Amino acid sequence: MLEAGKDFDFFNPHADLKVGHANLPHWQQARVLYFTTFRLSDSIPQDKLKLWQSDYNQWLFRNPKPWNDQQVEEYQEHFARKIEHWLDQNHGKCLLRKKQCRQIVEDCLLKFNNTRYRLDTFTIAANHVHALVATSADTTLSEILKSWKGVSARNINKALGKKGTIWQKETYDHIVRSPEALIKIRKYIHAHEANRLA
C-alpha cells in the first residue's frame, strides 16, 4: 500500500486546486490520492438516476462551489453514498461477474501501475470498480480513467462478440482528505473484495 508523505499527500485546502465542471464535482490537486468509482452503463436504473440528478441540482443551487468541509461531507452523505448503495444492489447485467471480463479490467488497472500512476488498492465488483490511485506528475486522473475504461470496453466487447457502451461516461472521484478517511476507504474496498469472493 502507498505511504502518505512519501507516495502522496492528503488534500490541502491551501494548495492549488482545479475543479472540473460536469454532473459530479471533480477536484484535481498535485500529489494526492484519489478514491474513484466507475460503473457499468446499466448499473443504476434510469428513474433513480433522474431523481438523484434533480435532488443534486437543487442542492448545488443552494451550495455553490467551492465547498467547505461541511458541504463536502453533506455531498458525500446525501449523494455519493446513495450512488454506492444503488451500485451494491447489483442492477444491470453485471458483466464483471464473468471472470474473463473481470480479468480484462484488472489487466488494464495494472498495466501502467508504477509508471503513469500508483495504485494503492482496488476491487472489481459485479457492476462497478473502486480504486485508490495516485497520479504521476505528467498524468491526470481523467487521462488514467479514460485509458482504463476505453481499453477495457474495447476488449470486453471483443471477448463477448458485442458492440456498444460498456461504462457510464462519468466517474465518481474525490481526493482523500485525511489518514482517518484513508483507513475508512481501504476498509470499504476490502469489504467489497471479501463480499465478491464469498
Architecture overview:
By secondary structure, this protein is α+β, with helices and mostly antiparallel strands. The chain has a single domain, classed as Alpha-Beta Plaits (2-Layer Sandwich), CATH 3.30.70.1290. It has five helices and six strands. The strands form two sheets. The protein has a four-stranded antiparallel sheet, with helices on both faces. Helix 3 packs antiparallel against helix 4. It is globular. The mean pLDDT is 85.
Question: Could you give the topology of this structure?
Answer:
Blueprint lengths: L17 E3 L5 E3 L4 E7 L6 H17 L6 H19 L11 H13 L5 E8 L3 E8 L5 H20 L11 E4 L3 H19 L1
Antiparallel strand pairs: 1-2, 3-5, 3-6, 4-5
Helix pairs in contact: 3-4
List keywords for this structure.
5 helices, alpha+beta, two-stranded antiparallel sheet, 198 residues, four-stranded antiparallel beta sheet, Alpha-Beta Plaits
The count of strands amounts to 6
Please write the string of helix (H) and strand (E) elements. EEEHHHEEHEH
Rg computed from alpha carbons, rounded to a whole number of angstroms: 17 Å
Largest sheet: 4 strands, antiparallel
Helix content: 40-55%
Spatial strand sequence of the major β-sheet? 4-5-3-6
- What is the typical, i.e. mean, pLDDT? 85
Could you state the CATH homologous superfamily?
Transposase IS200-like
How many domain units?
A: 1
Low-confidence stretches: none
- State the helix count: 5
| Beta-strand residue fraction | 15-25%
CATH architecture assignment? 2-Layer Sandwich
- CATH class, named Alpha Beta
CATH topology: Alpha-Beta Plaits
- Class by SSE composition: alpha+beta
Rough outline:
globular
The end-to-end span amounts to 23 Å
